[in-house]
Amino acid sequence: MKTIITIMLLSLSINYNMVGQTEKGCTAPGCHYKLVSAAFIHPAAEDDCTSCHESETVEHPSENGNDFSLVDESPELCYTCHDDKEPDASQKSIHPPFEEDCLNCHNPHSSNNKFILEDPVPDLCFSCHDDPGEIKNVKTIHGAMFVGGKCINCHSPHSSKNRKLLKEEDPALCLKCHNKEIKYEDKVIPNIAIKIVNEDLAHPPVVDDGCLTCHNPHSSVNNYLLNDTFPEGHYAQKFDDNYSLCFDCHDDSKILNKKTTTATEFRNGNTNLHFVHVNREKSRSCTNCHDVHGSANKHLIETEIKFGSWTMKLNYKPTKNGGSCLPGCHEQRSYSR
Ligand code: HEC
Ligand code: HEC
Ligand code: HEC
Ligand code: HEC
Ligand code: HEC
Ligand code: HEC
Ligand code: HEC
Ligand code: HEC
Ligand code: HEC
Q: pLDDT averaged over the chain?
């Protein structure tokens, strides 16, 4: 009995030693040490090489090489432990390189990039996609691609229950950052969510159709990431094609017709006050009076606007047949239709 136990213990300790030696052997200096020496190590590779590699030969290293084969090919190999990554029918979009081979982006052993990535985001993405900042004549590039997780702020690299690998649908996607004032370099971007809380007073396309109706999420040849032209700041040189964005939906006769009784409600008798303010050499932009996202007042009229550090109140009061305002630009004026 005693001898049997001794033999069992002995063989156990021999087995133990063999495993220990094999492990140490694989990653010993001069062998495969480098594979697992980068800053971020795949726990699986730290644990046991044989969970992915199986020996074909008794001798290793052998003369003809090919001593090991993979237990399975990626991505199936990876699903054995990461079964939550197996694409399923609930996903509306699946990233082709994710379905094809995890090694398109990940190193199986170790890497100097977080999440054992072959390259950091966004360089990783640019190895297959164009850099949206490198479009010809690009005027605005979205800061969302440079902060936090960069591309991963909005996209899953793997798969998503939303279209285009988006983590959330527009406008929720945009409002998770634009629900507060954002200070970025020398800019202060106002809180957009707060403007549209009262949906009845918001600009209908913002709440009905979403932010992407007017904005590109990455970059644009226009100001403010817009899909069409709109001036930056308070003024434009002439009316011309400077406000095309608005006239993708609205009729431009409300600005073009000097005299009208139909094109706009913003008129004094038949004098078109839109024409007076906008259709001139130094054109007053719509944002001198309107907030294009939403406002606490009727007709999207602003409560106050900023000129540098000076805040000007508009004091707009609608009446049954017109309205009045008392801005810093001129004394109280009223219009009546
Ligand atoms: C999570 C699975 C996994 C684990 C664990 C793993 N490997 Fe690998 N290994 C791979 C895959 C997949 C490849 C093929 C890589 C390719 O085709 O680019 C590979 C390739 C290799 C290669 C071939 C050359 C190279 O540099 O890519 C060597 C050598 C190697 N592994 C050694 C090891 C050693 C030693 C360990 C343990 C420290 C280990 N592997 C642990 C998955 C794994
Ligand atoms: C033997 C089990 C096993 C296999 C096979 C395996 N992994 Fe892992 N992997 C783990 C464990 C354990 C962790 C750490 C816990 C976690 O994040 O789930 C991990 C974590 C990761 C991480 C996150 C690393 C981090 O820094 O957060 C990535 C990426 C990853 N694995 C990719 C892969 C890829 C690609 C393959 C296939 C080549 C693969 N894994 C195969 C066990 C495995
Ligand atoms: C197109 C590139 C790409 C491909 C292909 C890819 N990944 Fe990833 N993976 C990433 C990026 C980027 C991250 C980091 C995500 C983050 O920052 O939140 C990541 C994170 C992970 C993580 C850790 C965080 C998490 O989501 O659990 C695991 C595990 C992982 N990947 C496993 C896999 C597996 C398994 C496959 C193949 C079925 C795979 N990846 C294919 C790019 C990729
Ligand atoms: C190995 C190549 C490769 C890498 C790396 C890669 N992609 Fe892709 N991606 C593709 C291919 C192929 C498609 C499908 C064709 C297309 O839309 O260009 C695609 C499509 C997409 C789509 C559109 C999905 C849809 O449903 O239409 C998004 C979004 C995307 N990738 C984001 C990313 C992001 C973010 C990264 C970096 C984390 C990345 N990709 C890295 C190859 C890649
Ligand atoms: C602010 C959120 C946001 C960020 C950050 C972001 N994207 Fe997107 N991306 C989107 C949205 C929204 C779409 C869908 C646009 C549409 O088709 O309406 C999209 C679409 C895409 C597409 C598909 C293009 C097509 O025409 O089908 C690719 C590829 C893509 N993004 C890659 C990237 C890469 C690479 C990065 C990082 C450099 C990145 N995205 C960062 C929001 C974002
Ligand atoms: C991860 C946070 C984040 C998300 C998500 C995000 N943004 Fe932004 N956005 C920023 C930051 C930071 C800035 C300031 C830098 C800049 O001006 O680009 C900004 C600026 C902007 C600007 C002003 C750009 C300019 O040049 O004046 C617009 C317009 C904008 N975002 C629209 C959107 C839209 C539309 C979405 C949804 C598709 C969105 N944002 C989602 C962070 C975000
Ligand atoms: C009807 C078109 C339209 C829609 C829809 C729209 N925007 Fe805008 N957005 C504009 C215009 C025009 C500007 C430039 C004038 C301004 O700053 O108000 C702008 C400017 C911005 C700015 C920059 C503000 C600044 O002063 O720098 C941000 C941020 C922004 N939009 C976010 C959003 C978000 C988030 C949504 C969705 C909830 C959205 N926009 C929907 C037209 C639109
Ligand atoms: C995607 C279509 C679309 C775009 C682009 C658009 N609008 Fe509108 N706008 C609407 C709709 C729909 C209404 C509600 C019906 C109406 O009054 O015509 C509206 C209403 C308005 C109102 C009137 C609100 C009221 O209660 O009287 C103003 C002011 C306005 N828009 C300004 C603008 C400005 C300024 C721009 C350009 C920056 C613009 N819109 C771009 C679709 C759009
Ligand atoms: C000087 C202030 C001012 C400027 C600048 C201005 N608007 Fe207006 N707008 C108003 C007022 C006030 C109303 C409300 C008229 C009413 O119903 O009594 C109005 C109404 C509107 C309406 C509702 C329909 C109508 O015409 O009555 C739209 C749409 C509109 N404006 C679009 C624009 C666009 C687009 C621009 C820039 C190209 C612009 N506005 C510039 C003051 C202005």
A: 91
- Cβ pair 248, 228 in contact under 8 A: yes
152, 164, 174, 179, best to mutate for ligand 5 pocket (most atoms within 8 Å of CB) = 164
Measure Cα distances from 237 to 232, 241, 281 in Å.
11, 10, 6
190 closest CA partner among 218, 224, 220: 224
Tens of pLDDT, residue by residue over 143-157, are 999 999 999 999 999
Atom of ligand 8 nearest to the CA of 201: 26
Q: Using alpha carbons, select from 117, 119, 115, 110 the residue that is nearest to residue 37.
A: 110
- Predicted TM-score (pTM) above 0.85: yes
Contacts of 299 (CB under 8 A, 6+ apart): 290, 318
Q: Give residue 313's pLDDT.
A: 93
- Taking the C-alpha atoms of residue 156 and residue 93, their distance in angstroms, rounded to an integer, is 10
Residue with CA at minimum distance from ligand 1 atom 2: 52
Tell me how far apart the alpha carbons of residues 292 and 283 are, in angstroms, rounded to a whole number: 17
| Any atom of ligand 8 within 6 Å of the Cβ of 211 | no
Torsional sign, CA 148, 151, 154, 158 = negative
Read off the pLDDT of residues 105-159 as tens digits, 9 standing for 90 and up.
Answer: 999 999 999 999 999 999 999 999 999 988 889 999 999 999 999 999 999 999 9
Ligand sitting nearest the alpha carbon of 317: 9
Q: For residue 284, name the pLDDT band (cuts at 50, 70, 90).
A: very high
Q: Sort residue 315 into left (φ over 0), alpha (ψ -120 to 50) or beta.
A: left
